[in-house]
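## retry 2 of 3
previous attempt timed out at serialization; input unchanged, resubmitting
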Amino acid sequence: MIKATWATVSLLVLALPGHSLAVERQATDLSRSGLVSKVGRVSSYVDSYESDAGAHPSYGCRLNSTYQQAATFGGRPVERTAVITDLFDEADVFVALVHAWPVIDALGDSRPSNLTELLAHLKPTCEVAWDQLPNAFAVMAVVERGASAVVRFGLGYGCEAARGSNTEFDVVIRIRGDQVAAFRTAVARKNLGRARTCGGTHEWSCCLRWMK
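## retry succeeded, writing output
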């Protein structure tokens, strides 16, 4: 089972009376551009960043998804990190991924029998941050008369030597019964494949006729 995680960012500033403290500021520009898809409580975006700190500039791009919970805090909806199994059945996700050639290539001789084993075998490399896979997705279209969806995965890189690289690929996954209404609403509101994604220095698509 894939478990969602919470992400919290904190900033602590310490002032020492009578002392001046020179702190090197890391100039990093984080941006979330455009909603790519929204299905029920799951929203997917393009996340990109640029940084001029360190010995050389750094930049990257990936897909990122959030889940809006029913609870609120200070009048605002509470969000957590979304995972692909918030929308699709674990077994169907496994079947789709295990037949995608970027995954086949990364698995090598490994033969996982379920999604948990698959994710455990996909170790992050310098070029591909495979650990982002459960969360780095967006829904691009509904196909097969509403029975399935084209899901795009967009992964960043795993080390600075591969900065700027990203991997993007599409798969077709059967829509889960309890999500049919949410997908119909998303189609009616044109909330699928709304924005351009990262592209991909390593790119593959199972479904070229559905590409936007």
